[in-house]
Design goal:
- The chain has 249 residues and is of the alpha+beta class.
- It has one domain (28-244).
- It has ten helices and five strands, in the order H-H-H-H-H-H-E-E-E-E-H-E-H-H-H.
- A five-stranded antiparallel beta sheet has the order 4-3-2-1-5.
- Strand 1 (149-154) and strand 2 (159-164) form a beta hairpin.
- The chain is globular.
């Protein structure tokens, strides 16, 4: 009898481990897919094009992403490429009409109304630097039901990305970064070093986090949400990440 009980316990434990492994792979694939959707939409980027021109081996951006930024910039602006990208950013995307003669404003410093307007502009023009790409990723993670994450500004890299705080499936947390083309990576020490992701270098972007609470659900691209749910979460409810990802800290 004891042998039978021990065998049943072993089988139950095995199913639990396999189930957790399957859930981890599902969530990883879903968030990779989301990041790729954002990357596919936003291939026009001033900072992306500048980084592609530098073409340095130490740059975080992957070669495929550099090629996308270069190709799209040259397609839209065959001549005076960087100048035209800069003007699009300064005179339209990040411009707040009426403020200091249309002063170029960073999304980090925008209020809720201004950030909503900026989001509409980047979606209209398919243009986004790392700040608004991170914001777009954040909107959809929130709309899928997971809220224990932050939009990070990394002053060492002058870069923005999303960080999932530690959960049952990813105990060290994870980075999602569409701008570099690295997408979903677990936040182990090697990747922390790669991103210079240390306390002295990073801070949360508070206005974006506040905006998400009031606007993320109604502002998400629901064609994306439905596609992700259909591909990865058929057995889950409308908020699959809320069910699968449990904060541990």
């Amino acid at each position: 009898m004891n042998t039978i009980k021990a065998g049943m316990v072993f089988i139950l434990c095995l199913f639990a481990v396999v189930g957790k492994s399957d859930d981890k792979e599902t969530v990883r694939n879903a968030l990779n897919f989301l990041s790729n959707l954002v990357a596919s939409k936003y291939q026009l980027s001033t900072t992306g094009y500048q980084s592609s021109m530098r073409n340095t081996s130490t740059n975080l951006i992957v070669p495929e992403r550099r090629a996308e930024y270069t190709a799209k910039a040259k397609e839209v602006y065959p001549s005076s490429t960087l100048l035209n990208l800069g003007e699009l950013q300064s005179k339209y995307i990040n411009c707040i009409p009426g403020e200091e003669k249309d002063f170029l404003s960073a999304p980090h410093s925008m209020n809720e109304v201004q950030l909503t307007s900026c989001l509409g502009k980047v979606r209209e023009k398919n243009f986004a630097n790392c700040d608004m790409q991170a914001f777009e990723v954040a909107i959809h993670i929130y709309a899928l039901g997971f809220k224990d994450f932050v939009v990070i500004s990394n002053k060492k890299l002058s870069h923005n990305y999303v960080v999932l705080r530690p959960t049952n499936l990813f105990p060290n947390g994870a980075i999602i970064d569409s701008w570099t083309g690295r997408h979903f990576i677990e936040l182990n020490f090697a990747n922390k070093k790669l991103f210079s992701h240390f306390d002295a270098n990073i801070e949360i972007v508070p206005n974006m986090m506040s905006w998400l609470k009031n606007n993320a659900t109604k502002s998400a691209n629901y064609a994306w949400i439905l596609d992700i749910r259909k591909r990865f979460f058929l057995r889950q409810d409308a908020l699959p990440l809320k069910q699968l990802l449990k904060p541990t800290k």
